[in-house]
Amino acid sequence: MNAKTYDVLVVGGGAAGVGVSIALKHAGIENFRLLDRSTIGASFASWPAETCFITPSFPTNSIGMLDLNSIAIGVSPAFSLGVEHPTGEEYAAHLRGVAEFFELPIFEHTDVKRVTKVGEDFRVDTTEETLRAKHVIWAAGEFQYPRLNGFVGSELCRHTATIPSYEELEGDDFVIVGGYESGVDAAYHLAYRDKRVRLFDKGCPWDDESSDPSVALSTYSRERMQADWFVDQVELFPETPIASVAREGAKYEITTQDGRRFQTSVSPLLAGGFEGSHKLVADLFERREDGYPLLSEHDESTIVRGVFLCGPAVRHENHVFCFIYKYRQRLRLLMPPVRGSCMKKLDLERYRQQLLAMRARLRGDTQSLSQRALDAAANSRMPIHMAERGTDEAARECDLMLSQQEASTLDRIEAALERIEEGVFGICLATGKPIPKARLDAVPYAEFCVKYAEQLERDGRSAGETNFRGSTVIVERYRSGSTEYIDTPGILRSSDTETTRLALSALAENDVVLLVVQATSLDQDLSDMLPLVIGKQGAMVVTYWDKVQQGEAAQEAIERLAADVGVKFITLDARQISGPNRQEIANATINPSTFRKASLTARAGWRIEPKPGWMEHHIVGPLLAVLLLFLPALATIYGANKVADLLHPIVARVFEPAIATVNATWPSWLRIVLTAQQGEFGYGLLNMGPFLLVWAFPTVLMFALILGVYKASGLIERMNVALHPLMRPFGLSGRDVVRVMIGFGCNVPAVISTRSCSSCSRGPAISAIAFGSACSYQLPATLAVLSGAAVATGTSAVSLTGLFLTYLLITTLVYLRLTSSSQARSSLNVLMTPSRPFMQWPTWSALWREASGTVRQFLLQAMPVFILICIAASLLAHAGVLDMASRILGPVMGAFDLPSQAALPVVLASVRKDGIFLLAADDGPSFPMTAAQALTAVYLAGVLLPCLVTAMTIGRETGWKPTSRLLARQARFAILFALILAWGSKWPQGNWLLELGFDRIEPPVDRDGCSSVYTLMLPCQRCVVLRGFGVFYGAVLRGGIFLPRFEFLPRYTTHATLELPPWSDEDLPKLSVPKDSQQCDSVSLTLELIDWIRNYESTIVKHLGVEYRRSTLLRWDNGKRTIVPAEEMARAWRLLGISIAEDCRVLFSQCGTVWPARRFGGKLMEQQVWCWGRDVEYSDGNLLVGYGFERHRDCSTDERSTCYRLDRGQIHIALWGFGMFYGCRELGGLYLSRFELFPTWAPVESLALEIHWPEDLPVFARPRGMFEWRCARKLWKSSLLWIANYETWVRDTVGLDYRRDCVKTWLRPYVRADKAPAAWRFLSRRGWEHQDQPLPQVFKRFTIAK
């Protein structure tokens, strides 16, 4: 037995169990465990593969509404999964991700056998051990307990819960018992596969008028019942309860209670619902009349205290909580009794005694104050002097005010005592989270937790930024007149950022507050910010007032709010603050009022947001954001370097005499600090200091100005939102990318700016800056070295630079992915923005205000540290430490395939990044290096460690111990990535085919123009022969196939080997379409060849890397060919093999037994288009228009081109003189050309109106993969049946003689008019190529006799 006693044991790892476990963590209960008999989400994973949620998922958290399928605040399956109706397997993965994110304590594979109450605790017996707990929450669900005993013979039925996939069910005639959601879902998927279905239900849920989906079918299911295949294939039997099911030989006989009998050859499917797991603990609950447990208002057992029920089995009166969005509402109701009983009894008694003592004291004080005030009023006399009267009134008002305040405190004490009696003491009334003990010790009657999480709970979203945003990173102080203003950063509500901590700290230390909110989201801002300033004095500044429609209504709303809050509201446009505005603000701070409310009764009643633009597009937005982020950065680096190139020689000429004088005449101790000359390089203040400003300052300034434009215009917030989904998998938010980009100017301001990061993303942001932000010293030095290496080796400087930047980006992302926490990378970290910012032209003042902070940080914080680094570097150089380090590391450079001379630049670059310049000379590298070695050297020198200035800044910001860990981790990864760069490119330079075992046969002299032939012998007497025009694969006893290069048309031969090398196709044996008796061998050979190619591609990627395959595809890609991505090639071959194995007609549909059908169908289609043309010219009116088509003519050209379009329900048809389009919702569209029966498919269900010519059509192609083939087959059948039905309609409407006349006037009459409908129906059926007679003979039934 486990001796530990848990506070809570949660049984069941489904949605209810995970949801209530998260609620327990939010309530501060850590001593609990979640038990599941299998794994988290196993019940959902057991759903049929096709079954999905009927409740739609939509990421509405940002507007305060939870996703219907969410189980916790801030969680959205729609966002994390990217689907609206997730399957069971997808939702199970979502639950596992949520459980990992919240770090829930889980015991998987723990089957609970029995729960019993022993004294005050519960004994929980499992298959592994016996556990003890104070409380048990039963959340085991119901899917694994299907209802199987509804009628006689039900054991002969198969419950839908036991079906892995409807696609695996054999048979064509199904009976389903149960017409609620499971039954309709099964019927839908079976009908989709052309199965006949009879659906029985004792009621009629599809016609129930109730709006409760627990009683009637959901809208989603009703909509699916309207699908064509459902209507055609499913027969409904409402009000038809089943009496019995019996087995009669190979048939199943179903008898209804009204005596009717039905037969089917397939075991009936049972969709009668579920028993539920609550029956396993039925002895712990009192039963309702309907058999479900009777529960208290907290979902607790009414007979056994401490055991709770959670999930779809919860019932209260007539309310059924069987959906996630229903029963999740009750999760919080379990927390008060659980949390209250988890508090120690001694603590409760201590708090109760404190509250009683406070109540007794305050009652006496309150009565005394009230009485004194009343006595003073009764005994007052008329004073002679007005000042004397004012003194009396003020004293009396003070007494009454104190009395009222203490009376309010008494009310709160009484409420706290009541909470102790109810067992909910110490729980925040707004969130259900525990109030910290320290707070209760100070204020025992506290109602809310410290962090004011009531707004978080009310909005239903995770920690995010409100639209109250400041522009500063540090708290700034400045004075205007006699008033000192403290400018705090923007406050991130419920956030743990450093800037928020600074802002809240400054707010707590000062009593007068000038609260700035935005008029566009005034109600939301006030709701967020007023709880933080309650009781303080100040005024309210409302910006963005120019965005509000001016008028009396707006002004009246402001006046109502001012009266409600108790302070003055000042409305203005912050971009154009007038003199009166400034005076009004100054007066409000000198004569402030008191913020007297934390929540408002008055409301402004508006919310103003700009329209979405290109940045909000889910595809264009991220691309545009990346361009806006990187293109200005590259332009800045280029421009700043140009400025530095101009200034460098000028500054050098100015300081050269001073340096020479110092080296010649000054004392040695000053020379050490000022020049520290070591050969041609100096480490002192005079050598290094001026050039810091030359190279770094222009870059920092230009970066600050461009980012200032982005911020002042409002563009930066839109970029953050667009970039966030791309960066979240690497532990960064969209906002953090901007901070990393600042590092390309200077790392110091970038590191300081991370104060605005959340605690989980600040570490990755600093790591990205230290690792991947090549500062204004590093990048020019790197470019110089690579340019010199390119000249020396004859390679392209642009390609080397591009390769370096690409590798730096990739390794930085890999580094972040591997080192950032799972919490930082979780898909649940949604970047919450309360409103879309307005775009506006930045003013010069706003631009400078945004940029000046970065420049000031560079000058005041980076420069002093850099001076210290110069002094330290000069001392180290003078002491010989740098030379000694380079000598020690010289031999180590061999591990990176570098000469020993590379050690000094690597060491110096760890001090200051321009040490990379030592790798370059005037005419190339400073020592012989290949291009690959130059790349490795600059990468290792730049990334091994951040410069000392950056390292010291990180240490000051985060502490020296975390900084040391960061440096060690960065060094390890830099060494690993440098080794990969040094040795990873050393792929085998020989022929990879030869290394795999192929034999190469060189062409003879008379075939001098031919390329080599490669042959490979495989086990079991098989062989592969590769030639530039195709592949041959043979196996003894089965023959061989040849697969030509430019089309997938396998040809068969009885020869298993080739007698001669195939220098041309003439050397191949006779190849032909396989006969019926040869098709089995041909298919098996094709599948084996595909499997061999798939294994070959996997081997390539495994040994040479996917980049190698990408490089080969780049040479193949001419812009016109369809390119399969390198990482998808093996998978593409696998899917092709699956589709061929599923239906071998895929293999022969172009070249096998159906060639006669294609010829016949092509002539029939050409004749049909001719007949449609005659129908347009019918004497009594256009027959196509009479059928329901609409005519659309191309008026943009003199050539007449008309399209006829028909829309009926989910079907869309378009007819032209060159062919026909047939589309259907959820299936896509099929195009049938006029001159051949070769259908092509596209994922479009309708076409634009302006299509009048073949070149205007979208791209149609042969289907790929099982899904596309399945859709194409359904469209093929439906389209040909429609043509047949149309021909029947023409015959019935205008007579057969009319159609015969149409056929006679056709130049090439082929199919008899009376046989045309039958011919189209024949082609639409499956299996027509397997007739007893040859197809040409079959087709003679329909054709005109010659």
UniProtKB/TrEMBL annotation:
Pfam family name, one: zf-dskA_traR
Keywords assigned by UniProt, alphabetized: Membrane, Metal-binding, Monooxygenase, Oxidoreductase, Transmembrane, Transmembrane helix, Zinc, Zinc-finger
Zinc finger DksA/TraR C4-type domain ranges (all copies): 424-450
An example molecular function term from Gene Ontology annotations: monooxygenase activity
Superkingdom: Eukaryota
GO CC, alphabetical: plasma membrane
Coiled-coil annotated spans: none
Domain Nucleoside transporter/FeoB GTPase Gate: 694-784, 859-960
Transmembrane segments: 619-638, 650-669, 689-710, 765-791, 797-816, 858-881, 934-954, 1024-1043
PROSITE patterns: ZF_DKSA_2 (PS51128)
Name of the molecule in the record: Flavoprotein monooxygenase (Baeyer-Villiger flavin-containing monooxygenase) (BVFMO) (Baeyer-Villiger monooxygenase) (BVMO) (Flavin-containing monooxygenase) (FMO) (SAFMO)
Species the sequence originates in: Cladocopium goreaui
Origin organism lineage: Eukaryota, Sar, Alveolata, Dinophyceae, Suessiales
